[in-house]
Structure formats: C-alpha cells, structure tokens
Amino acid sequence: AAAGALAVLGQRELLLAYVPLYAIVIAFLVVREEEALAERYGADHAAYRARVPGFFPRPWRRLARAERHGSFSWRPIASGLELWKLLGIAAVFAFFLARRLA
C-alpha cells in the first residue's frame, strides 16, 4: 500500500528507497519467523513447509481435498483491527492525494 501510494503521488525518490528497504525487512522477518516456527513445532512445521509455499504461491500445486482442514471466516478480520488499519491507510492516502491536487 505504501509503495502504491508513493507511486501514485509521484514520489519516485522515496519509492526507490522504500522498495529495497521493505524487501530487506520482510526477508529478515520471514527468516526469523520460520526459525521460531521450526523451533516450536519441529517435524510438524517441516511437513507443513514441504506442502505449503513460503512466500510466492504455487497455484499449480494444490492440496488434495482430503488434506484441507478448516474453512475461511471473516470473523477474525471483522473483530480485529484490520478494518481500522484499512480505513487509516485510505485516510492517509486521501490526505496526501488531496494535498497534491490542491
């Protein structure tokens, strides 16, 4: 969202700095979380990692219906802060867009 906002607002210099820094931070977080999950769940996590892609989806490799568990629910999204975060991002974007157009 931030990269998109920077692009729309024409902030090329900030965008060029933001994208690689964001990629580095995300890569660091992914490695750290994977290590913590492997330590906490051991063989179960290793089996999960063998079935599920880490960062980029692989639509050609789907789980068999018998292996799927659970179902999708909007309840955690609606009851958490996700909707407020989305509204906050939209408000900041609208602010900068209005400022740029003024």
Overview of this protein structure:
The chain has 102 residues and is mostly helical. It is 70% helix and 0% strand. It is built from 5 helices and no strands. It has helices at residues 2-8, 12-41, 43-51, 75-79, 82-101. α2 crosses α3. The mean pLDDT is 86.
What are the low-pLDDT stretches, counting only 5+ consecutive residues below 50?
A: none
Number of DSSP E strands:
0
What is the 3D form? Answer: extended
In whole angstroms, the N-to-C terminal distance is 22 Å
Order of helices and strands: HHHHH
Largest sheet: none
Which radius of gyration do the C-alpha atoms yield? 19 Å
Class from secondary-structure proportions:
mainly alpha
Continuous helix count:
5
Percent range for helical residues? Answer: 55-70%
- What is the average per-residue confidence, as pLDDT, rounded to a whole number? 86
Strand content bin:
under 5%
